[in-house]
Design goal:
Blueprint: H1 2-25, H2 39-47, H3 52-88, H4 94-116, H5 125-149, H6 155-175, H7 183-202, H8 212-215
Helix pairs in contact: 3-4, 5-6, 5-7, 6-7
Length: about 220
C-alpha cells in the first residue's frame, strides 16, 4: 500500500506546485475565488482543451463511487458480523442476514449523503480530510493499541474509552483553536488512557464465548 500511496501523494504536491507556477506566471487568468479548493476545478474548466474536463469529471465520479461503495459495504458487514451476530448470538439464517445487510448498507449510504452536506463547515479540503481522519482514525488507533500493548484491556473498557475519547475529541474540534494536525494524536491518547482506566474498573479481560453452531464448527473436509 505504501508503494502506491507515496507516488499518489507526490503527484498531488506536484499538481499544486504546477498550479501555483502557472497562476504566478499568468495572474490575470485567476479571478478572486471564495475558496482556494476551487482553483483546480477552475483550471480544468477554463484552461484544458475541450473534452478533457468531461473525462476528468467522469474519472473523479468513478473513483468516488468505487471508494464509497466499498466503504459502505465494509461498514455494513462490520456492523452485521461484529455487532449484530456477536451481541445477539442468533442462528445464522442466510436470508435474514442478507436482508439486514441490505438495510445496513442503505442506512450507511443515507448517512454518508447527509454528512456530505456538512463538509463545508469543516474548512478547506485539506482541513476537512485531516479533521475526519483524525476524528475517526485517532480513537480507532487507540483501541488497537489497547489490544496490542496492554493485557488488562477488555471489550467494555475499549468501547467506553473510544466513546468518551471521541466525545472529548469532538469538543476539542468544535470548541477550541487546536490545530487539526493534532486531532489524531489527541483522540488516540484519550482513547488509550480512558480505555485502560475503564478496563481496570470493569474487571480483567476474558475470552468471549461464541455460539457453537455459528463459529466453532470444524472446517468441511473433502473425501
Amino acid at each position: 500500500k505504501l508503494i502506491v500511496t507515496v507516488p499518489v501523494v507526490v503527484v498531488f504536491y506536484l499538481m499544486g506546485a504546477v498550479l501555483f507556477s502557472f497562476y504566478q506566471t499568468y495572474p490575470d487568468r485567476l479571478p478572486d475565488l471564495a475558496q482556494q479548493d476551487r482553483i483546480l476545478p477552475y483550471f480544468v474548466v477554463n484552461e484544458l482543451p475541450a473534452g478533457v474536463p468531461g473525462l476528468l469529471v467522469a474519472a473523479i465520479l468513478a473513483a468516488t463511487m468505487s471508494t464509497v461503495s466499498s466503504g459502505i459495504n465494509a461498514l455494513g458487514t462490520a456492523s452485521l458480523v461484529d455487532f449484530y451476530q456477536r451481541n445477539l448470538r442468533t442462528a445464522a439464517d442466510p436470508e435474514r442476514l442478507l436482508r439486514i445487510s441490505k438495510w445496513l448498507t442503505g442506512f450507511y449510504g443515507l448517512l454518508a449523503t447527509a454528512l456530505a452536506f456538512l463538509m463545508p463547515l469543516l474548512g478547506t479540503l485539506i482541513e476537512a480530510t485531516n479533521k475526519i481522519m483524525g476524528m475517526l482514525g485517532g480513537p480507532l488507533l487507540g483501541v488497537f493499541l489497547l489490544g496490542m500493548v496492554t493485557k488488562r484491556a477488555n471489550s467494555q473498557g475499549a468501547l467506553l474509552g473510544a466513546f468518551v475519547g471521541s466525545l472529548l475529541l469532538a469538543f476539542v474540534v468544535f470548541n477550541t483553536d487546536v490545530s487539526f494536525l493534532w486531532y489524531a494524536l489527541i483522540g488516540c491518547v484519550a482513547t488509550f488512557v480512558l480505555g485502560y482506566l475503564f478496563s481496570l474498573a470493569t474487571g480483567p479481560a476474558h475470552e468471549e464465548e461464541w455460539p457453537d453452531e455459528d463459529y466453532d464448527q470444524p472446517a468441511p473436509t473433502v473425501e
